[in-house]
Structure formats: C-alpha cells, structure tokens
Amino acid sequence: MGPPFRGEDEDEDAEDEDTEHEDELPPLTLEQLGRFRGENGGPVYVAVDGKVFDVSESRAMYGPGGSYHVFAGRDATRALAMGSTREEDVLARPGDVAGLSTSQLVALDAWLDRLEGKYPVVAVLVPWPRTPDPDGKRPSKL
Q: Is 108 a residue whose pLDDT tops 70?
C-alpha cells in the first residue's frame, strides 16, 4: 500500500519546511562545486535550480566514466531542461533558464522532483537565486 494521501494544505506545509531547511544549508560557489566530481572516490555533487545534491550513491552514473558524469561538480540546470548531456550545454550558461521553452521548463521540474525524491540536498548554490526568465515562462511546480 502506498503512502497516505497528502492534502493540498500538507503539501504547502512540506514546501515551507523544505524552504526553512534550505536556509540552514551551507552555501557553495560554482568553483567549490567543481571539487565534487567523484575523483579518487570523493563525493559527487550536482547542482540543479540552486540546490546541490549529493548523488554519490549513484556513482556508476554520475562518477568518472558514468553517462551523467558531465553533470558532476557542475550546475546542470540548463542542460537537464534541454535534455542534453553535451558538455558545452552544461558549461555554457550554468543555471540560466532564459529562453527555454515551457516544455523544457516542465522537463526541468520533472528532473528536480526526481532528484529531490532520491538524493539529499547538501548545500545551496551561490550566488542564487538566478535572474528569473525575463519572459516569465517558468511554470510553478506541476
């Protein structure tokens, strides 16, 4: 049997708790994040939408030689929204969602939900928040 149904009020409370918890997380710059690429058995971190996830438990995917290693120690926000594992897409505009389509932003939210459900958030990426999409296309969580 699955988890009990959560009403809308409970979801809002859970989001408030997540926000409060994020305020307590240490800040991490892009430069510092780059130290967490899984080399020599070290931790593997991936940043998405200002949150830094410890994905070390999935080292086979995110660690050296893994299919998602391109995201390790980097801000993968834009590349994940684009569905890209090309290094130039990861490095080009870290965290920038300007100009992305609505479907790409929805895909980003799906990735964020997946990561939040599986991996711990260990830090917040700074400086953050990023400049919002000037078109205002970023949908709220679906």
A: yes
Burial class, 116, CB count within 10 angstroms (exposed 0-12 / middle 13-18 / buried 19+)? middle
Q: For 25-125, CATH number?
A: 3.10.120.10
Specify the amino acid at residue 37.
R
Q: How far apart are CA 78 and CA 69, in angstroms?
A: 15
What is the residue whose two structure tokens read 């120690």? 73
Rounded Cα gap, residues 105 and 59, in angstroms = 26
The model carries a pTM of 0.76
Question: What are the tens digits of pLDDT across the range 22-33?
Answer: 679 999 999 999
The DSSP secondary structure of 24-35, one letter per residue, reads: TSPEE-HHHHTT
- Could you tell me the residue ranges of all domains in the chain? 25-125
